[in-house]
Every structure is written in C-alpha cells, then in structure tokens.
Amino acid sequence: MSFAERMLKIDRRIIFVVIGLCTLLPLLYPVGLPIKISSEVRGVYDYIEQMPERSVFLLSIDFDPASKPELYPQAVAILRHAFRKNLRVVTMTLWVSGTGMADQLVTQVAQEMGKERGKDYTFLGWSPGGTAVIINLGQDLYNTFPSDYAGKTTKGQPVLDGVQSLRDVSYAVSLAAGNPGVEAWYVFGKDKYKFELGGGCTGVIAPGLYPLLRSGQINGLIGGLRGAAEYEILIGQKGRAVAGMDAQSATHLAIIVLVALCNIFYFSMRRQARRQGERS
Amino acid sequence: MATGLTLCILSFLYKDNPLFKLAEHLYVGVSVGYTIVKAYDTVLVHLIFKPIVENGEWVLLVPVTIGSLMLTRYVPKASWLSRYAFAFIVGVGSGLAIPRTISSFILKQIEDTVRPLLMLAPGGDVTFTWDLHNPASSLNVIIILIGVTSVLFYFFFSVEHTGPGRVVARTGVMFLMISFGAAFGYTVMARMSLLIGRLTDLIEFSDASYGRPTVWLALVTIGTLIFLSRRTQGEPPDQH
Amino acid sequence: MIFLRRQLPLLITMITGLVFAGQYYVPHPASEQVLTSATKWMQIIGGFALVLGVTSLFHVHAAKIRRKEAGWGYSVVLYAGMLGTIAVGFWANGKESVEGVSTAFGWVYNFMMVPLQGTMFAILAFFIASAAYRSFRARSREAAVLLIAAVIVMMGRVPLGEYLIPMSGDLSQWILNVLNASVRRAILIGVSLGTVALSLKIIFGVERSYLGGGKE
User: Are C42 and C89 contained in the same domain?
Assistant: First the structure.
C-alpha cells in the first residue's frame, strides 16, 4: 500500500479530532477577524430600521433545537433590533418542537429590553396545520390564535390594537430551518395578503432561497451563523454568532485543507497507477 | 443533565455504544411525549374545548369528527373510514396549492427571468450594464437567463442531447455543478455552526460556577467507554 | 359499499380541491368565509394527523418489548421518556414556563430535548468532514467545477477566507446571487410544475395512493 493510499484510509477519528480542535481552540482563544456585511442581511436590517414606531412586526420562529446554534442568534439580534425601534412585536412558531425554545427566547430578550408582554410584544405559541395556519392568519388572526401561549385571550391585547389579520402586519420575518418556513410564508401569506416579507434560514436551505431574493419576493435573507454575525454587527451588539465566526473560519479552512490533501493523494495514486500501466 | 446527554451523543464519534443508544432512544421518547402534550394543549384545549364551551362554536365538532376518523387507521375493520379524513385534507391541500404555486413560483419566477436586457439610462438612452457585483445588471440578467433555460432544457428534454442541444445541456450541467458546489459549501457552514453551538454550551458548563460538569462528565463518559470497550475487546470499530 | 369506501372519498377530494382552487379567484366575503373556516378546520385536523404520526412509533417499540427482541431495553427507555414527558407535561398544563418561571415540563424540554436534538445534528459536522476527505475528488471536469465552487463559497463566507483572499467574498456572493440563483430558479419552476400536475392528478382521481388504509 502506497503512502497516498494509506493516507486516504486513515482512521476517521483522526479527522474528528482535527475538526474538534479547529472548533474548540478558536472558541477558547478568539482572534476577532472583521466581518463584512452582505446586501442580503442589510435588506432585513434596513427595512426594520426605517419602520415607524409601534408598527407591527411579526417574527415567525420556524425552527427547533436542532438548528438552534444557527437561528437562535439571528432571532436574538432581530428581536433586539425590533424592540429598540419600539415596534409592536408579534411572535409565533410553526414548528411544534421549537415552542418552548421560542417562548424562552422571546421572554428573555423582551425582559432584557424592558418590554411588557401584551403591550409591547406577544408570543402566540404554536398551532398545527403549517400552511393552513398562515392562510388562516391572513384571514383572521383571532380565529387562528384565540389565545396566546400563556393562555390569555388575544383579542384586546394592546400589542394587537388595530390588527385583524396579516394584512395589518407591516413586516414579517420567518426564521426557518425547513418547511414550513420562508417559502410557505410567501406562497400562502405574502402572495395574497401583501405584507413585506424577509427571511432568515439555516445554511443548508439558504442557497434555495436566492431565487425568491432575486425576484424581490423576500426583501432580505439572513443565512446561517454568518448572517447572524452580520446582523449582530449591524445592531452593534456582538453575541454568540460573532463569537463563533473564528471557529467557523478555522473549520472551513480545515475542510479545504482536507479536500486539497484528498485530491493530492488521489492524483498521486492515479499517476502511480498510470506509470505502472505504462511499465507493464 | 444537558452536559451528560450531550457527551453521550458525542461518544458516538468513538464508536456506536450503549451510551449513545440510550440517549438516542431517550431523545425519541421525549420528543414524542412533547409533541403529544403540545397537541393536547393547543388543539384539544385551546382550539376545540374552549371555543366550544366559551363561545358555543359547535361547528368545530365537524373537524373533530374528521380528525377522529383518521385514528380509525388503528382499527383494521374500520380503517377505510380514515379515507374521508385524508380525502378532505388532500383535497383542500391540493386546491389551496394549485393557484398559489402557479402565482408564486411559476409566474413570478419566469417574470423575473425574462427581464429587459437593456436598461433605460437618464436622458432616455438605453444602456447595457456590465457590473457583475450588481445581480440586476444586464450581464447578470443574461447569465441568469442562460442558466435557467439550460438547466430546464437539461431536465425536461430527455431525448439524446446532440448538436446544439448537447451544448445547451452541457451548459446546464456546469451551472448545476456550480450550484451543488455552493450548496455543499453552505452545508459545511451549517454543520460546523451546529458543532460550534454545542461546544460553546459545553465550554459554558465547564465553568466553576456550574461545578464544572463538562469536565467531570467527560471523564465519566471516557471511563465508561474504556470499560465498555474492554468488555467487547477484539471487536474493531466500524468504518463508514 | 364500494361507493362509500372508494368513490365517495374520491368525490370529496375532487369537490374540495376544485372549490379551494377556485376560491383563490373569488374574493367575495362569503368565499373568504369558507376559506377562513376550512383553514381553521385544517388546523384542528392537523393536530390529529400529528398525533397519528407520532403514535405509530408506539406499536413498533411495544412489539419489540413484548417479543424481548435485541435491544428491547432501549425501547423501555423510549417509553419511559415518552410517558415521563407526558406526565410532567399534563402536570404543567402543557406550559414550559409560567410568567417566566420554568416548569418541570420546561426542565425536561430545556435540559433533555434541546441538548439531545442539538447534539444529534451537531455530530454531522464530523461526518461531513470525514466524507469530504474521503470522497470529494476531482475525478472529472464536472466534479472539478463543483469542488472549486464549494471551496470559493467556503472561503467567501468566513472572515478568514475574505482576509486571506479578499475577492473570495465578492466571488461567492456572485456565485450565490447569479449562478446558484438561476439553477435554483429552474429547479423551483420544475418542482412547482410537478406539484401542480400532481395536485391536478389527485383532484381528478388519477393519483389515489393517499387513500391507502384497508380493503376496498
């Protein structure tokens, strides 16, 4: 067995250790490289920035703990921004297993920003049906969520003053880890009820949302942990996403080096095989 | 608890072991339990019971009946009744999807693809913009048009690609490869982010204020793995 | 009987399908009211569907325990986890927190479900690295193009990449915004045409596999 062959067949646990160290070391000893802001992320930020006070902002937290590291920092940054702009924040989730996390997230950020439940914000909770929930919200919000997560009747809450359906929402953002998510909010929501829509998503589904971004169906897109880091920079409040960017850099570099090594060994094996073929 | 369970799952990286299996089954059990509780609280209490009792919305018994028919799947002799529930859901779902999908994903996407190739400049002149940085520039509009049509051609025209058709199909394949590459890059980013998130939590729980559970439980996990591997010595670690 | 078991369900699908496809084009208040009611019904039925989906696991693991198949102990753990969660969930009225204070149900969620689910997906990071090392090879021109695009995007989406090769950021943006967007658009149009075709087949009774369940 040649050196290249041996190297290509090394114990996968060596690779695991390399990836583990590339993640752990930058988290323990951060460098803090500068992060550039993309136009996609700026799209969401700029829209919230120009919204008048007490406008209605709907945040749909469409993910579960599996995507927490990517989308939780996005949600925290957007909520901080919206609360700072004194918007009326209406939150909900279409993902059942994300309900507890969404409640904790909204409550924590609201407490940090000194906001009052029912007056400045509300968490409607989860309701089954996915796309049917979006349509029903577009028809009648109180029919969809007769009570909020805490069990309080939604009708009469000051935060929902003048809001009857999605038509009365100034801006909605779906932070999605899959379906139902950003696409469903467009197809079953914005298409008919004509509110402005932005998106945040995991890295896995981000490339698939670019057609919607290009056609203006969504006005911005926050992609993965990198997108969250950009948003944290924009609001001037660095958090977990910015802290994770050095580790992200190191692991990406590690993967690129691994791919390069794999190809070097592969081509050296191929050359060796060709030479042997010529000799025989 | 959180640290211990995290380490149990991470122990899979060494090899499949009882600690991982235990955590995996516990995860499934807790998730199912959680979903049942949420469905009970949201649907039964807030969407059915309260509106009926407080507002007299008796009409809601219709979807309750349809929903209950679904559960006849568990009774072999009556399972055909569940067809009514599925017929309703699938019928309404298909009906809702058709016009919305056509409007959102077919017409709007085609509309954005067939944009004017020249732009109106101030003064009434037409201009062709070469700026690659601007996704709406004339050059990029042409590239997008070529990309969309060549990929659609590659997918839909399953006849043998010869002559000019071969060139178009090859172009489509190249576009596809670039897109798959970008998707791979983004997937790597996503997976690494998840690991960063979990390790950040473990670092947080290694703090003295928590009693350093990460350190202690890591030692316990490693000890257990050594004990288990001694018991099953001679069995090679599985290779994927 | 065949009418009740087979034809009537197909008729229900056809009528509801046509009604709700047509409803989109009729913005009359009565038509809108029908939509409001139907989507509310779908919410409620969706709850039942969810329960049906998750409870199918019961049977698989109950059978494993009954027959004492290999690894039946893990099935007991699964049952214990599920029943324990249901018990604390009902005790807490289905709420993870009340007025910001965590309940026992919230504790199970935060300290069991969240880390378990999170870590389950986090370990994929290691396997994607291992897979990339073992199989991401430029065997052909197409594979080489894929590989180069992946490397550019990986470089361009992290600060270190942009620092080492400043143009990688703009290049990856262009790949995502133009080249990737065009491919994804073609796929989206293709998939949407397929969705519409399948929906029409369902409405007109050509596609019937969704009926399943029981004999004719």
Answer: yes
pTM (predicted TM-score): 0.91
Question: Among A12, A131, A147, whose Cβ lies nearest the Cβ of B240?
Answer: A12
The last residue of a domain, from among C83, C98, C122: C122
CA A60 to chain CA centroid, Å, is: 11
- Of C105, C188, C50, which is closest to residue A95 (Cα–Cα)? C50
C95, C140: one domain: no
Residues C144 and C84 both lie in one domain:
no
Nearest Cα neighbor of A24 from B202, C147, B183 is B202
Q: What is the mean pLDDT of residues A172-191?
A: 95
90-149 in C: which are within 8 Å (CB) of A?
95-100, 106, 109-110, 113-115, 117-118, 120-122, 125-126, 128-130, 132-139, 147
The last residue of one of the domains, among C92, C122, C152, is C122
User: pLDDT tens digits, chain C, 216 residues: what are they?
Assistant: 778 788 899 999 999 999 999 999 998 999 999 999 999 999 999 999 988 888 777 788 888 888 888 888 888 988 999 999 999 999 998 888 887 788 999 899 988 888 888 888 888 888 888 888 888 888 899 999 999 999 999 999 999 999 999 999 999 999 999 999 999 999 999 999 999 999 999 999 888 887 774 455
DSSP 8-state class, residue B238: P
| Distance of alpha carbon A86 from alpha carbon A121, whole angstroms | 10
* C139 lies in the same domain as C180: yes
- Using the predicted structure, report yes or no on whether residue B122 has a pLDDT greater than 80: no
CB-closest option in A96, A214, A224 to B112 = A214
CATH superfamily label, A39-238? MTH777-like (3.40.50.10160)
Q: What's residue A171's pLDDT?
A: 97
B152: nearest CA in chain C?
Answer: C186
d(CA A156, CA A148): 12
Instruction: Give the domain range for residue C198.
Output: 135-209
Residues contacting residue A152 through CB under 8 Å, at least 6 positions apart: A118
Within a domain: residue C1?
Answer: no
**Residue C121: C-alpha distances to residues A198, B23, C124, C176 (Å):** 26, 13, 6, 25
Query: Among residues 162-181 of chain A, which lie with CB inside 8 Å of chain C?
Result: none
A132, A251, A256: residue with CB nearest C151: A256
Can you point out the beta strands (E) in chain B? 119-120, 126-127
Domain assignment present for C59:
yes
Write out chain B residues lying below 8 Å of C80, CB-based: 29
C164 CA: distance to closest CA in chain A (Å): 11
The verdict on residue C84 lying in a domain is yes
Sign of CA dihedral A72, A73, A74, A76: positive
Phi, psi of A121 (to 5 degrees): -155, 165
pLDDT value of residue B123: 76
Q: How confident is the model at residue B240 (pLDDT cuts 50, 70, 90)?
A: very low
Partners of residue A68 in chain B, C-beta under 8 Å:
197
Q: What residues of chain A lie within 8 A of the CB of C120, using their CB?
A: 66
Q: Which residues of A touch B183 (CB under 8 A)?
A: 207-208
**pLDDT for position C86:** 94
Q: Are residues C117 and C152 in the same domain?
A: no
Domain boundaries, chain A: 3-30+245-279, 39-238
On whether both C40 and C118 belong to a single domain, the answer is yes
Neighboring chain A residues of B192 at a CB cutoff of 8 Å? 19, 23, 247-248, 251-252, 255
Contact assignment for A203 to B186 by CB distance below 8 Å:
yes
Q: Which chains touch B (3 or more CB pairs under 8 A)?
A: A, C
